[in-house]
Amino acid sequence: MKLFSLSVMSTLIAMGLASAEVKAEASPHITGVNLGYGTQEYESRDGERWDAGDGFKYDIWYRYMLTSHWGVELSYGQGTGGAYSAMFDILSDVRELEYSNYRAALYGQYNFSRGNSVYAKAGMAFSDITYDLDDSRIKEDAEGFFGAVGWQHRFHSGFGLGVEYQYTDLKQLEVQSINIAFSWQF
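The line above is the sequence of OmpA-like transmembrane domain protein; the predicted structure tokens follow.
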């Protein structure tokens, strides 16, 4: 009986160590959402630049980590005018500016302490831009550079929380925003 108890206890300890070993290896799959607020500036086809005011935006994204420091990210996002834009649209020639975009980016991170890292993203954004100009609804396609830098904390549960600065230059539309990032590593 003593040998059986010792055998069962050894098996349980081995299983516990093996599961701790598996848990220590991070999954390469991460998904998340960013909620942001920032500025928008628009350039029309005839070259005139308009301050399109402030804007709210969100991104839903998926990241696959190739290594512990490098990954690729795919995203879908939308943005529209904010509180300032809503109040002062009547003074601007460009009104009701909205956009949606798909993004592909390379991702790199540096872990500076347990659970904390700084990161950067660089890639391309492909967008549909819609706005009102001179009582006409105009829709345009655009593509351009996307970049971001940020800080995140990853908890043991896989939940991540961070702050990120994003810059998107679509030639016609330049968007800068500060975002709160929520993510889940699964």
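Note on the example: The longest strand covers residues 94-113. Confidence is low (pLDDT under 50) at residues 11-23.
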